[in-house]
Every structure is written in structure tokens, then in C-alpha cells.
UniProtKB/TrEMBL annotation:
<dbReference type="InterPro" id="IPR016181">
    <property type="entry name" value="Acyl_CoA_acyltransferase"/>
</dbReference>
<dbReference type="InterPro" id="IPR051016">
    <property type="entry name" value="Diverse_Substrate_AcTransf"/>
</dbReference>
<dbReference type="InterPro" id="IPR000182">
    <property type="entry name" value="GNAT_dom"/>
</dbReference>
<keyword id="KW-0012">Acyltransferase</keyword>
<feature type="domain" description="N-acetyltransferase">
    <location>
        <begin position="4"/>
        <end position="148"/>
    </location>
</feature>
<dbReference type="GO" id="GO:0008080">
    <property type="term" value="F:N-acetyltransferase activity"/>
</dbReference>
<keyword id="KW-0808">Transferase</keyword>
<protein>
    <submittedName>
        <fullName>GNAT superfamily N-acetyltransferase</fullName>
    </submittedName>
</protein>
<dbReference type="Pfam" id="PF00583">
    <property type="entry name" value="Acetyltransf_1"/>
</dbReference>
Amino acid sequence: MTEITVRPLAQSDHADWRRLWTDYLTFYETKLPEEVYAVTWKRLFTAGEFEPKGFIATLDGKAVGLTHYLYHRSCWAEQNNCYLQDLFADPDVRGKGIGAELIKAVKLEAAKIGVKNVYWMTHESNATARKLYDYVARRTGFIEYDLL
């Protein structure tokens, strides 16, 4: 039987984190400069209410998934919201519960500080992920716009 473990990122996870995050960015046809990798890694270990945080998932001891999340204020509630910014599982382990366990870990961590609203986005073409998201969460119907 395979064992999924989800735990907070540790400094010793740098190589696995970099590999997984690079694969995630490649999936979305994105490249980031070295400076962004460096500052993101630093921020993941910087104390602060609004600094990003991360989890890594292992399957039988091998790093196979990651998530980044962060808290932010809302004008609609006293408590912060939690934005699950990045979620990735190695393609060869998809369908084994990695994504669901990472989402669950973020939800449980947010609940520890009273945050109930955990949300995320995905691209409409990401059918594999949307299958999971439709199972574990409700679709809000909102459409994203940005000013890039």
C-alpha cells in the first residue's frame, strides 16, 4: 500500500520544491527568472501573517506534490481568506489522492486560525484538476479578470 504524507515545506526540501514548482510552471507554459525562485523560496520561510506558506506531499517517501497558499484580508469578513495559489502533483501520480490531500492540509491549517474561506483558480482547460476540484469544492461561478 502506498502512503501519502503531507507536511510543511522544510529548508531541506529545496531541490524537490524547485523540481515540482518548475514542472508546475512548465505545465502552465511559464518561465520565471532565478530571482523569483530565490525570493519565493525565501518568502516561504519568512514569518509574517501574509507571507506565503507551503506544503509538500510525498508518496512512499518521494516528493510528488506541492502547494503554496497565503492569507489575505477581506472586506466581507473579520477573518482572513486563504488563497491556495499553486497546486501540483507529478503527472505519473495523478488520481492517487495527492491533490486532495494537499487541499485538505491547507484547509486544516487555515481552520487552526479561524479561516473558513479557502479558494483557488485553475485554467478552464485543466480538465484533470477540475475533476478533482468539482469533487472537493463548490464552483462559485465567478470569472477572473486581470490588468496584466
